[in-house]
Amino acid sequence: MEIEEEREGDWQIDIWKETWIKRSSSNSSSSNYSSSSNSSCSSSSCNSSSSSSNIVVIVVEVLVKAVVVIVKVVVVVVVVIVVVVAVVVVVVVVVVVVVVVVVVVVVLVKVVEVAAAVVVVS
Q1: Mind listing the pLDDT tens digit for each residue in 81-100?
Q2: Rounded to an integer, what is the distance from CA 97 to the centroid of its chain?
Q3: Where is this region: Disordered (predicted)?
């Protein structure tokens, strides 16, 4: 199940990458268009905007992975809490059943003693 979740997370990261790459390529093409008309964009400054968008892609990828890890940790903690509560409930139910059985046995023993005493007296 974790492998499927990781694949799903990777799939989401791929979508983020594609979105950011499309945005960065459209931004760089528009900046290249403006640079060709204005001749103010040198190749190094155009490449730096592309590399900064690559940094954004990496940051987004790291953030998405961090969110996936945090969600997994929260799910594990919730499952552990639910299991502990279930075990406590089962233990309480078992203790209550044992107490009820003991009380019923004690009452039956007293009834038998009283009945035996009545038979002996008569």
Answers
A1: 999 999 999 999 999 999 99
A2: 36
A3: 23-51
What total of structural domains would you count in the chain?
1
Closest CA to 20 of 50, 62, 63: 50
Contacts of the segment 108-111: beta carbons below 8 A, 24+ positions apart: none
Q: For residue 97, what is the enclosing H or E element?
A: helix 43-121
CA gap 74, 65 in Å, rounded: 14
Question: What CA–CA distance (Å, rounded) separates 1 from 109?
Answer: 56
Note the pTM of the prediction, 2 decimals: 0.47
Domain span at residue 48 reads: 2-121
Q: Is 39 helix (H, G, I), strand (E, B) or coil?
A: coil
